[in-house]
Amino acid sequence: MARSRYWKITPDELGNFKYEQDKLLNWEIKCIREPESDAIFIGVFMYRDGTPYDYESIKGITYFHNNISRDELPDITKFLQAKYGGKEMEKGERIFLKDSKEIYSGDDLAGLARAMEEKFSVKAIISLEFEGITHDELKKAGLPEAKLLPIPGK
């Protein structure tokens, strides 16, 4: 099945998209702290089929961090758990919220991105990856062609 990836989407743009949620394969909200050149960020994401953890896949929201003080991690985890639940598991630079609520709607993702911006003083940039969605469906959903990164088929 064909895949399509959209990137560099703002929370305001995402709120206008009306796509079929069951065709959203995964999403990521990269939360960047200024100045961008310092590479300080939190990446919150979810894979529909689960995120690899050793030899199993963990369902639920996961986040990774770069140049974030370890002292901040409990606040990030508590913030996400308060919204979506899940059992905390850590592996390297990733924090898993096993069996947390899964979100896929544009409104829910835009809301999370805005909440992350406000709570952690970051700028959120969103990526979406779809599978099995036609070009016409993407257009009808309001997804801008300028932000499309086609993924080569097998």
Describe this structure in words.
The chain is of the alpha+beta class. It has one domain. It has an eight-stranded antiparallel beta sheet. The protein has a two-stranded antiparallel ribbon with strand order 4-5. Strand 2 and strand 3 form a beta hairpin. The chain is globular and about 45 Å long.
Rg value: 15 Å
The arrangement of helices and strands along the chain is: EHEEEEEHEEHEHE
Strand content: 35-45%
Oligomer: single chain
Major beta-sheet overview: 8 strands, antiparallel
Mean pLDDT: 93
Shape verdict: globular
* Order of neighbouring strands in the sheet with most strands: 7-8-6-3-2-9-1-10
Secondary-structure content class? alpha+beta
Poorly predicted runs of 5 or more residues: none
Helix content: 10-25%
Number of strands: 10
The domain count comes to 1
Contiguous helical run count? 4
What does this entry show, briefly?
The protein is of the alpha+beta class and 154 residues long. Helix content is 24%, strand content 38%. β7 and β8 form a beta hairpin.
For this entry, give a set of tags.
two-stranded antiparallel sheet, eight-stranded antiparallel beta sheet, alpha+beta, 154 residues, globular
